[in-house]
Design brief:
The chain is α/β, with parallel strands linked by helices and 242 residues long. It has one domain: 3-Layer(aba) Sandwich (Rossmann fold). It has 8 helices and 7 strands, in the order ααααββαββαβααββ. A 7-stranded mixed sheet has the order 3-2-1-4-5-7-6. Helix 1 runs parallel beside helix 7. The chain starts with a helix and ends with a strand. This is Thiol methyltransferase 1A. One of its GO terms (molecular function) is S-adenosylmethionine-dependent methyltransferase activity.
Length: 242
């Protein structure tokens, strides 16, 4: 089975040669302008299907507000702001994303969520949050982002750095399937093509292992099956406390 999987993945990789060339010469930047339009549409569908899971995940956010203070949330890879409706009223929100073309949709989403205090949008990758001070954030949120960062471990190190002691990292990510399933098989076969479709997304990433090894003092992590196409059904959800 493994040899067949590798062979088919190589075939798909060969078929993707035109995409490899487009990426190599820098023309993939055009897709980065189109990608926010796609995500804006897909985020609405995702939220509709995952509403209860997101609601359950984010309902504990107020527990991480400092006594007498205001809850400060930083979202890595905020995209179009699909999580904003689930954040508690009055919290202070800092948004980051490496793609500046999301800001237009982000502004529209903020206008619909005036229960939040929107502080700023920072064009930055999860691996480099130098614009944010150490120990300054109550909660870091990351949903459907760790699949596409270049360095998961570095992103989690930055997350740990900016969180205050007792702060929490909330996550909801699609991940690699169980090795004994057809999901795992087809994830690996289609990965070369999916990388470009998802703007750098890795559907074969075992993200839970990185979170478990990130040095948090407490970790609440669940493996769940999301109601989507089978290759993106496997998800992890939870939060980790610094």
């Amino acid at each position: 089975m493994t040899s067949v999987m590798r062979f088919l993945s190589s075939v798909v990789n060969i078929l993707c040669i035109p995409l490899h060339l487009i990426h190599a010469v820098g023309l993939s930047g055009i897709y980065k302008r189109i990608f926010p339009i796609c995500i804006n549409w897909m985020a609405k569908s995702y939220n509709k299907k995952m509403h209860n899971q997101k609601k359950d995940l984010f309902c504990v956010l107020p527990e991480f507000k400092k006594a007498g203070g205001q809850l400060t949330i930083l979202e890595i890879g905020c995209g179009t702001g699909a999580n904003f409706e689930f954040y508690p009223p009055g919290c202070r929100l800092i948004c980051t994303d490496p793609n500046p073309h999301f800001e237009k949709y982000l502004t529209e989403t903020m206008a619909k969520n005036d229960h939040l205090r929107y502080e700023r949008f920072v064009v930055a990758s999860g691996e480099d949050l130098r614009a944010v001070d150490d120990d300054s954030i109550d909660v870091v949120v990351c949903t459907l982002v760790l699949c596409s960062v270049d360095d998961v471990s570095q992103t989690l190190r930055e997350t740990h750095r900016i969180l205050r002691p007792g702060g929490a990292f909330f996550f909801l990510e699609h991940v690699a399937g169980d090795t004994s399933t057809w999901t795992y098989f087809f994830q690996h076969v289609l990965q070369p093509l999916w990388y470009y479709y998802g703007d750098g997304c890795w559907i074969i990433r075992e993200t839970w292992k990185y979170v478990e090894e990130a040095g948090f003092s407490d970790l609440k992590l669940r493996h769940i099956e999301a109601p989507f196409f089978f290759i993106i059904k496997p998800h992890i959800s939870g939060y980790a406390v610094k």
